[in-house]
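Question (not urgent): is this output format expected?
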Amino acid sequence: MNSKENRERAFSIQGIDAALRRAALKARELGERTQTPVYVMREGRVVDLLTGTTWEPIAGEDQR
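Got this back:
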């Protein structure tokens, strides 16, 4: 990879963190507005961000 390609790649991934945070915020806002669950994985458990309800994976299931 040459210097120009390195700069282009760095520029293209520079805003990924901010974009992911904006998308997460919009998903949560939509869930609140429509009373729809917003699920995330935290410490190996599925968590609904709006209610705080958690589910543990079933033993033996594929954990991807």
